[in-house]
Design a protein that fits this description.
The chain has about 450 residues and is of the alpha+beta class. It has 9 helices and 21 strands. Helices cover about 20% and strands about 45% of the residues. It comes from Molothrus ater.
Length: about 450
């Protein structure tokens, strides 16, 4: 599996995955489980609400009516290299007269796969469907032991198994409109959005259905260029014994791109109010007394001077921020008197809530201050470090966490959320095994 995703993308294109997911056989079983009542509801509506056929010349009194529909079995299994197989068994109660009731069994065997349409969206396609209708028992029969094939009766015409096969994918809880929601744009900040675009149709292996995704970010409605990934990302091979429904994987490049998008949107620019004032600063730096006649609060206005960088190691995620801070006083107007380069190395903490990844700065591991101009001596540089390091150490993480507190939406389809989440950070990628949960209906 380590090379499968790289094979999905033609060599001539610059598009390459930076994240992806594997829907496991356990996940398929769960989707079948939650789809069963939905399928029964759809079939009951389609079959019981259908008008009875008009009496035929050969049997003018025959008017069959379906009085009950019950889905007995509903399974979704993986076929490696091909797709999925949907198997449904439906028990039907049919009456043709007040005293005559018989049970029929409708069996549907369909092969499905997910394809990519010309618009770039994933869609569920039926490649083969075989319906059969059998009579199980009748109140007029003495031998009820064995089902037998139904003849071409009015029941066959009323059920219209061909129509059911044409719309068999609607019996699942993830029809095409939900698959399209996978590529919907999700907000990160008021002017920054993330979007996960499928690169190709999924691949099918014994481990599950493998989907490769490329992340794009929009700032103020326009897609932004992102750093080029140094190495192509491929889905790591999961343990074959994994019981999770879904395994998501995010590359190191994904996180660097995320912080680059936040930088482009201006979300990482911070304004830090220090505990100092010009008067207290003048006690340590005598020149300050001649610059400001009144006592004003000292402010640091920091902007990014180059793109952030994220490094993933075993059990550890680090973000490196490169800022330039103007140190000055007042607010309107802001009067800058010194420019300082600030390099922050901070540890990231990752968690998942519902369908969002919560990223927060857990601790600052290192801060380097360097004067942007060389006309100030080392004594002043050391003094500035003493005065402003505590403020930077506390306020930079606090402001970044404020930006990221809503979390970053993970790729997901509508109506499903994630539970039983286990995040593991490895060198170069983050793995998120989780289970699917159908959201409770509201309203």
């Amino acid at each position: 599996l380590s090379v499968l995703l790289s094979l999905l993308v033609p060599a001539h294109t610059t598009r390459s995955p930076d994240c992806g997911g594997i829907l496991t056989p356990s996940g398929l079983r769960y989707l079948a489980e939650v789809s069963k009542p939905h399928a029964e509801s759809v079939l009951r509506r389609d079959l019981m609400d259908s008008p009875a056929p008009a009496p035929s010349p050969t049997s003018p009194s025959s008017r069959n009516q379906i009085i009950s529909v019950k889905v007995d079995k509903f399974s979704l299994t993986l076929i490696p290299d091909t797709g999925m197989r949907l198997s449904i068994e439906v028990d039907l109660g049919i009456t043709s007269a007040p005293s005559s009731t018989k049970e029929m069994r409708l069996s549907i065997l369909a092969d499905l796969h997910v394809d990519m349409n010309p618009e770039g969206n994933l869609e569920l396609v039926t490649s083969d469907c075989k319906p059969t209708l059998e009579e199980v028992q009748s109140t007029e029969e003495t031998d009820r032991s064995a089902p037998h094939k139904s003849s071409g009766s009015d029941v066959d015409k009323q059920i219209n198994v061909e129509k059911i096969c044409l719309e068999v994918s609607k019996l699942l809880l993830f029809p095409n409109e939900r698959l399209m929601s996978l590529a919907a744009p999700f907000p990160i900040t008021p002017n920054c959005q993330v979007q996960y675009l499928p690169l190709a149709a999924p691949m099918y292996s014994e481990q599950g259905i493998i989907i490769s995704l490329q992340t794009t970010f929009q700032v103020a409605g326009a897609a932004i260029p992102l750093p080029v990934s140094p190495v192509p990302f491929s889905m790591p091979e999961p343990a074959s014994s994994s019981t999770s429904h879904l395994i998501l994987a995010f590359s190191e490049h994904f996180y660097t791109s995320l912080f680059s998008a936040l930088e482009e949107s201006g979300a990482l620019n911070v304004s830090l109010l220090s505990s100092l004032t010009t008067a207290t600063l003048a006690e340590r730096i005598t020149q300050m007394g001649s610059l400001f006649q009144e006592d004003l609060p000292v402010v640091l206005q920091a902007v990014t001077r180059s793109s952030p960088h994220v490094v993933l190691e075993e059990d550890k995620a680090i973000v490196q921020l490169f800022l330039t801070a103007q140190i000055g006083a007042g607010s309107s107007p802001f009067q800058s008197f010194l420019s300082v380069n600030v390099d922050v190395t901070a540890r990231l903490q990752l968690s998942v809530a519902d369908t969002r990844m919560i990223i927060s700065v857990a601790a600052v591991e290192d801060i380097e201050l360097s004067l942007a101009t060389s006309d100030v001596g080392p004594i002043l540089a050391a003094l500035l470090e003493e005065l402003f390091l505590p403020t930077i150490r506390e306020e930079v993480p606090a402001q970044i966490n404020k930006v990221l507190r809503q979390g970053v939406f993970l790729p997901h389809i509508a109506s499903f959320t994630y539970t039983d989440i286990n995040i593991t950070i490895h060198k170069d990628y983050v793995l998120i095994p989780c289970n699917l949960q159908l959201e409770a209906r509201t309203g």
